[in-house]
Write a structure and sequence with these properties.
Elements (H helix, E strand, L loop, with lengths): L1 H10 L12 H20 L4 H25 L6 H29 L2 H26 L3 H27 L1
Helix pairs in contact: 1-4, 2-3, 2-4, 3-6, 4-5, 5-6
Length: 166
C-alpha cells in the first residue's frame, strides 16, 4: 500500500517520477495487472489465441519501448521505476475505463465515446509527463514521445498480430 500511495500522485499529474521508490515486487504486480486488464479487453474483442498473442505483444512492446528510450537516454538504471510508473498510471486509468468502455460500446451513446476520448487524453498526458521528467524535454517533445509510445505499443501489436495471425 505504501508504494501505491507513493505512485498515486503521478496519476493526478503531480509528483516526480525519479523520486519514487523502486520495488521489483510492485513492478511485477503492476505488470501482471496490466497484462490481465489488457487481456480482458482483448479477449472480449477477438479470439482466444489472437487475444493472448496481442496482449503478449503489447506487454513486450511496452517494456521494449521504455527500455529503448531509457537506453538511448543513458538512464536505463531507472527502468523499473519508470516502467512501474507507466504501468501503474495505465492500470489506474484502465480500472476507470473498463466500465465506461463496456457502457459506451453497448449503449452507443455519444457521451460514452466522449468519455473514452477523455480517458485516452488522460493516458497520453500522463505518459507525456513521465517522459518529460525522465528525458528532461519540453512539453511538445514529450507529447511526441507519448504519441509514439501509443502508436508503437498498441498500433504495433495490432499490426504484428494482423500480419502473423492473418
Amino acid at each position: 500500500m505504501n508504494n501505491f500511495n507513493a505512485y498515486l500522485p503521478l496519476c493526478w499529474l503531480r509528483g516526480y517520477v525519479l523520486l519514487l521508490p523502486t520495488s521489483q515486487r510492485f513492478f511485477r504486480q503492476n505488470l501482471i495487472f496490466y497484462f490481465a486488464v489488457i487481456f480482458f479487453i482483448q479477449f472480449n474483442m477477438s479470439d482466444d489465441i489472437e487475444a493472448i498473442f496481442e496482449v503478449i505483444l503489447e506487454t513486450l512492446l511496452t517494456l521494449g519501448f521504455v527500455g529503448g528510450i531509457l537506453l538511448l537516454n543513458k538512464s536505463h538504471d531507472s527502468f523499473t521505476q519508470i516502467t512501474t510508473a507507466i504501468l501503474f498510471c495505465q492500470n489506474l486509468i484502465s480500472t476507470f475505463l473498463l466500465p465506461v468502455m463496456f457502457w459506451a460500446t453497448t449503449s452507443e451513446e455519444a457521451f460514452g465515446y466522449l468519455l473514452l476520448g477523455l480517458f485516452l487524453l488522460w493516458a497520453v498526458l500522463l505518459i507525456a509527463r513521465i517522459f518529460k521528467q525522465v528525458l528532461d524535454i519540453n512539453n511538445a517533445a514529450a507529447l511526441v514521445v507519448s504519441f509514439a509510445y501509443f502508436l508503437i505499443v498498441y498500433g504495433g501489436a495490432y499490426g504484428i498480430d494482423s500480419l502473423v495471425m492473418g
